[in-house]
Amino acid sequence: MTRRALLRPLVARALLAGMATAAATAAATAAPAELRVGVVSLADDPRYEPKRLEQRYPGHPEGRPFDGMRVAATESRLALEAAGMTLKLEPAEARDAQAAAQTTAMLARQGIRYIVLDLPADAVRAATRAVQPGEALLLNVSSDDDLLRGEACAPHLLHTLPSRRMQADALMQALAARKWRKALLLTGPAPEDRAWQALYLQAARRFGVAWAAQRDFRLSNDPRERELANVRLLTGGPDHDVVVVADADGEFARTVPYATQLPRPVAGANGLTAMAWHRAWERHGGPQLNRRFFKAAGRPMSGHDWAGWVAIKAVVEAATRAPKAAFAEQARRLVSGEVVIDGFKGPRLSFRPWDGQLRQPVFLAHPDGVAAVAPLDGFLHPRNNLDTLGADAPETACRR
């Protein structure tokens, strides 16, 4: 056999090895799949007006939740890389509710399947109507309006911020657990104040809290209405264990602690407040998350920031758990509650199939710390104790 004949098999094997190496290298360097997430907000959203943010009312936003989304995107890089994916946040600002709806529809037409809505309730409803189920999955991160989880719900709309009813239930659980069962309720004149009043009354019946009295307050420059803003006068009369303040704006509520006629704790819009997150949360990875957020945003993390953060975590979890699945399957698993998320609050979180609300613990907190976490011990549910907060499946007004 000639030398050339002997070399032929060696050359062939070398060529095959080279081709295999080149194929492996090409596969390794192939462009990862891009997970695009749209973020729709209002350019002049009054909730983020600088003077209002400076007030730092308990439970109100302290900045745009996009800061929380950016932190979540950074945290998710390793999981995305392992699944052969990258994440791209695509923010878009609109002038008003109608423009927000048009922007949301435009993002869906561009092939963006996950869209985060940082919008007031009316704009969330408009945006939801502008997109058909199957076109995109919408995640509301900054409106706690119960109508969005009830009559105005939609099969392609999820919510990461606790609803107002969840917050009211959490607060009344805390009062009942401490046996503060006689409460004085102070309610403001605004429609949102009356909405909170109705929720507190409903939650009080649910958890066995009675009302010693119910009184109205009003902040006014009219001297004839001065008594309606006098905390000592408003908190006099029948004995009570706690003062509950229904004040959506928060301006009056901040004057109530330590100003009551009797030495009583304050809850609701100030004092002991129901929150999605708190800067002093010290368990389940909370300190680490708070440090990462403060480093990225230069301010403490609030409940609205957490809602933005967990929305991105939910999208990433759905995508990386089934990277080969079509969007429809990923969305179905997320909406049905099959996908669970670590929200750094303890139990794994999932979306309620009946109204799209993220079931989650709610913090009962004061400005300097977390006093309790709802659901509290003793408040039980046949399937998931987190469902003691908010509308349960048999009582939901949502028809998805």
Describe what this molecule looks like in 3D.
This protein has helices at residues 3-28, 50-55, 66-75, 77-82, 97-109, 121-130, 164-177, 191-207, 231-234, 286-297, 303-321, 327-335; strands spanning 33-42, 85-94, 114-118, 137-140, 157-159, 182-187, 210-216, 242-246, 266-268, 273-275, 350-351, 358-359, 362-366, 369-374. It is of the alpha/beta class and 400 residues long. It has two domains: 33-162 and 277-360, Response regulator (Rossmann fold, 3-Layer(aba) Sandwich), CATH 3.40.50.2300; 166-272, Response regulator (Rossmann fold, 3-Layer(aba) Sandwich), CATH 3.40.50. The chain has a five-stranded parallel β-sheet, sandwiched between helices. Strands 7-6-8-9 form a four-stranded parallel β-sheet, covered by helices on one side. The protein is globular and about 70 Å long. The protein starts with a helix and ends in a 26-residue tail after the last strand.
